[in-house]
């Protein structure tokens, strides 16, 4: 268990899932997946929200471990951190894909073994 201020988080990926629940945060991650960007560059890509909202979303992504940043003078370069996403993949997606693909392979073998 992780202790975060006065709140106990049973699953460290819970904050990651909560961060991914918002479409603006997913868009930020999509933009950072292409290349690292300054906060100003990210703000310019949003018509529907302002600088403060983008900063708030970046802070949530940072706290979830999905975004890393480095200061370069007055600029803040934001980078995607793929590790939490990989952890989600390994915990949730990979077992499902493996299970489905092994079932499909078994079905394929079963169908191909039947005489025509």
Instruction: Determine the N-to-C terminus distance.
Output: 57 Å
How helical, in percent, are the residues? Answer: 55-70%
User: How would a crystallographer describe the biggest sheet?
Assistant: 3 strands, antiparallel
Task: Specify Rg, calculated over alpha carbons.
Answer: 20 Å
The CATH architecture of the largest domain can be given as Orthogonal Bundle
Structural class: alpha+beta
Question: Could you give me the name of the CATH homologous superfamily of the largest domain?
Answer: Winged helix-like DNA-binding domain superfamily/Winged helix DNA-binding domain
Q: Averaged pLDDT, please?
A: 86
Number of helices: 5
Give the DSSP E fraction (strand runs of 2 or more residues): 15-25%
SSE succession: EEHHEHHEEH
Query: Which strand order does the major sheet show?
Result: 3-5-4
Low-confidence stretches: 1-7
CATH class of the largest domain: Mainly Alpha
In one word, what is the shape?
elongated
The figure for the number of domains is 2
How would you sum up this structure, described in words?
The chain has about 120 residues and is α+β, with helices and mostly antiparallel strands. It folds into 2 domains: about 15-80, Winged helix-like DNA-binding domain superfamily/Winged helix DNA-binding domain (Arc Repressor Mutant, subunit A, Orthogonal Bundle); about 80-115. The chain contains 5 helices and 5 strands, in the order ββααβααββα. It has helices at about 15-20, 25-35, 40-45, 50-65, 85-115, and strands spanning about 1-5, 5-10, 35-40, 65-70, 75-80. Helix 1 runs antiparallel to helix 4 (about 50-65). The radius of gyration is 20 Å and the shape is elongated. The chain starts with a strand and ends with a helix. About 15% of the residues are buried. Mean pLDDT is about 85; it is low at about 1-5.
């Amino acid at each position: 268990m992780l202790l975060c201020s006065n709140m106990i988080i049973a699953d460290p990926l819970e904050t990651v899932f909560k961060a991914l629940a918002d479409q603006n945060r997913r868009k930020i991650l999509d933009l950072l997946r292409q290349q690292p960007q300054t906060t100003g560059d990210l703000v310019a890509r949003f018509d529907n929200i302002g600088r403060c909202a983008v900063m708030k979303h970046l802070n949530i992504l940072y706290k979830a471990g999905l975004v890393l940043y480095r200061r370069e003078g007055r600029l803040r370069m934001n980078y995607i951190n793929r590790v939490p996403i990989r952890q989600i993949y390994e915990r949730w997606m990979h077992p499902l894909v493996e299970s489905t693909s092994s079932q499909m392979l078994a079905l394929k073998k079963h169908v191909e073994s039947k005489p025509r």
